[in-house]
Amino acid sequence: MMRIFRRILRLYQGFIVSGVILLFGTLGVIFAVVPGVQATIALYERLGVLEKEHEALSTKLSFLTSMQEDNLRDQLAMLLSVVPQDKSVPSIFTTLEGLAQQSGVSIGEINLTSPGSLATGSAVSQMTSGKKIGASTLPFLLSATGVYDQIRSFVSSINQVKRLFDVTSFEFSIGSAGVTRVSLSLSAFYQPLPTKVGSVEAPLSSLTPKEEDVLAKLIKYPDFSASAFQPLTPVSIGGKRDPFAR
Q1: Residue among 161, 155, 150 nearest 223 (CA)
Q2: What would the pLDDT profile of 87-96 be if each residue is shown by its tens digit?
Q3: Is residue 126 within 8 Å of residue 185, measured between CB atoms?
Q4: Which of 32, 91, 136, 207 is 20 to 30 A distant from 14 in Cα terms?
Q5: Closest by CA position to 188, among listed 66, 111, 92, 119
Q6: Residues 6 or more apart whose Cβ sits within 8 Å of residue 168
Q7: Is the pLDDT of residue 105 over 90?
Q8: Residues in Cβ contact with 57 at an 8 Å cutoff, skipping those fewer than 6 apart
């Protein structure tokens, strides 16, 4: 039996050696070469992702470099006068007072209220208008008197000033002496600045033509609320500063 086995082994020795070499070669390819190829492919794909990120960041950097910081600060200050980051009640009063002086009407009453205390239709309208633009609203009631042309000028200009108001409802009456009285339900918009910014990879887009037109219109609106933020000028009193000085 051993003789037969040795004889077969002697006859097919070359094939057996070749088969063993082929087997180990195949195992080497499976356990060594294939993982290396997979790792190379993964690195290549990652390189492609990094190249895209680098291109996006380069585009973003070029966009930021082309923008003027002073211009952005001016635009932000202007937009905050239109829609402040808090309720800014003083700016409401100064804006209405300035608008009243411009149109010639006399303001009778300003009543800051809450949506729940308004009529149902007005409350719903104010809440809806705020949700449309994603801003918060401060509702209030206003009454004013004047001649018809003055009231018309006041009402037509009330949503074209740099403290954005929305007229939700109004009613007016004309007296026998020609004095017109108007009662308005309005909302003053405000929106806190975001506390979080987008990721570094997030793309930046320039303003659309429609947004540019809106910005150009807002710039032209009069700003009566500016006086609410002007610092008080210290008053210099003449005479000796030290009453005990000789």
Answers
A1: 161
A2: 989 999 999 9
A3: yes
A4: 32
A5: 92
A6: 122, 125, 126, 129, 139, 185, 186, 187
A7: yes
A8: 200, 201
